[in-house]
Known about the structure:
A 5-stranded mixed β-barrel has the order 1-2-3-5-4. The chain has one domain (2-80): CATH 2.40.50.220. By secondary structure, it is mainly beta. The mean pLDDT is 84. The two termini are 17 Å apart. The protein has 1 helix and 5 strands, in the order ββββαβ.
Amino acid sequence: MIIGKVLGNVVSTxxxxxxxxxxxxxxxxxxxxxxxxxxxxxxxxxxxxxGELVLIALGSAARVGTDNENAPVDAxxxxxxxxxQDIVGV
Length: 90
């Protein structure tokens, strides 16, 4: 799980049937959380907004977090951070 900041959203009119009705956000991991990743697109079923800090699950944990283990999802926003101490790069 990593912490990231929501930068924007993605609109996709054509996608897998398993993704219809879902919202996608562009998230940038905070510095030091995931050195090998740049910005990522994450499915958002919890209603995160632009500028918010979020918790992101990756891989199979992301699919479980969407309640659809058969969806083609690699990153999911699973929480919105209300406060945190010493979050690097914020």
